[in-house]
Amino acid sequence: MMFTPRGSGNPPPVRRDQMEPDQRRSGRVDPAVDRAVIRPVLFDAVLLDRDGTLVEDVPYNGDPEKVRPMPGARAALDRLRAAGLRLGVVTNQSGLAKGMFTAAQMRAVHARIEALLGPFDTWQVCPHDDGDGCSCRKPAPGLVHRAAAALGTTPARCVLVGDIGRDMTAALAAGATGLLVPTPVTRPEEVAAAPHVARDLPAAIEEILRRQAALRPSAPRRSGTVLVVRSDSAGDVLVTGPAVRAVAAGADRVVLLHGPRGRHAAALLPGVDELVEWPLPWIDGDPAPVDPDDIRRLTDRLAGVRADEAVVFTSFHQSPLPLALLLRMAGVPRVSAISDDYPGALLDVRHRVPDGLPEPERALSLAAAAGFPLPAADDPALRVRTDGLPPAPARVGRPGYVVLHPGSAVPTRACPPELAARIVRVLTAAGHRVAVTGGPDETELTARVAGDTGVDLGGWTGLADLAAVLADAGALVVGNTGPAHLAAALGVPVVSLFAPTVPFGQWGPYRVPAVRLGDAAAPCRDTRATRCPVPGHPCLSTVEPDHVLAAVRLLGVPADAPPPGAAPATVGIDPVIAGGGSAR
């Protein structure tokens, strides 16, 4: 199964099933590892835009005397250097293509910047203009890939700090973390769409170091049987996967308590030895009335696990305390959880986290606080077991197709059917093979969306079947729903039609190349609504199929099935994707 067909300037395809033996306990979950030497690494390099981020934006500057550092830049960069993070600059310099300054003048400017701000480990410059069609000019991800390679790392371990939408798009398309520091030229829609925002460069560096430190435990420990809990949807279980692997690295046995909606995702997680399924009425979105007999049976089942401790993972709006009480009644001697509410004697480790952390990092920070860091050899990406996946249907053909998943259990996050059908037509007209996926209750939807040109895979059951289809995909086009996290776990790039009812920085595709589309400032923003509160679904209805085609191309997915006698359509980087700001 070949993952992520890449375009020009991007790294070669990676097969995640060859990166580790996907046994029931992950090949990277090694109880024998020396935990005294574990040093969790979230980031090991910070990439910075030049003009407007490091120094004042002087258009087409070839004069070292005009270099003016941004306030607090030197001290902030020195903090990164002291923390052992490598630094790189990724900058568009179209003035070279326009003849506004020479390469020698640009090098003199860079020498002046280093004299004022200290040395950088790599400078990556795009000398092209917008119309040159290169793979390096931001918002294309080429500079990020080149900088990561020069620093001996991967984009997923990099943060890109910039001041306009092009910087954020380049970061996400490479699989890096984007952190926006707005300036007067930053458009409001760019601020709304950014995954993370800081008020200035020192605040951005503080955020990077805070996130890095959150995964570093004060005292790594070993344990016997650990009960880990994530009783929620499939996507919630998948984003908790890195934290489960962290616990498994320090435990002899891991038992996962999950709910009915997370059943199929739980079965795919590495590092788990036993599954316990139980609906929790204080977690489920549509719960049945509390049944005292059911609660007594659950308490008995928890006691039967004979856990030495429990780590209760929840989303930011959920409370771990009802289950913590049952765990105490079941005799579990040590319980760890995130809780803003006073827990009394219910928790041994009461962990708190700031708002805005990506959900995988939120869970990892709890695991670290409980004494279970992720081993340094294990990247904190999402991951699933692939050893037991069924074969993909033969009718999808060879690897490299695009998957479109139009449905969602939460209506606000689904792609409007009419838009989804138009996306299929535009992608196939441009030479992409498109498979349309959906569950057994979505066959009418997938048939309508696939039309005469897409491959209709509606009706497949189980997350493992969908994983088998995604495993050979070049990209997934999907809303903010579980399949987006499944694609991330398989290393498959995501075109994210993201309804802003929840923050993108918390719930967007994690550490995988992605492009965000949709109106991030729509009235439904941050409402957590499950049904669209605004007529017409404006957050996604503004997306055009050509935007999706441009996003697929930005992610480096080649069109491999041009219609007979027809040339593929040409679509540049759309302004909605590219972002604005200075024409550097």
TrEMBL record:
Similarity comment text for this entry: Belongs to the GmhB family.
One of the Pfam families matching this protein, by short name: Hydrolase_like
Residue ranges with Basic and acidic residues bias: 14-31
A Gene Ontology molecular function term of the record: phosphatase activity
Compartmental location: Cytoplasm
GO CC annotation, single: cytoplasm
The protein's name: D,D-heptose 1,7-bisphosphate phosphatase
NCBIfam families linked: HAD-SF-IIIA (TIGR01662), Histidinol-ppas (TIGR01656)
Keyword Cytoplasm annotated: yes
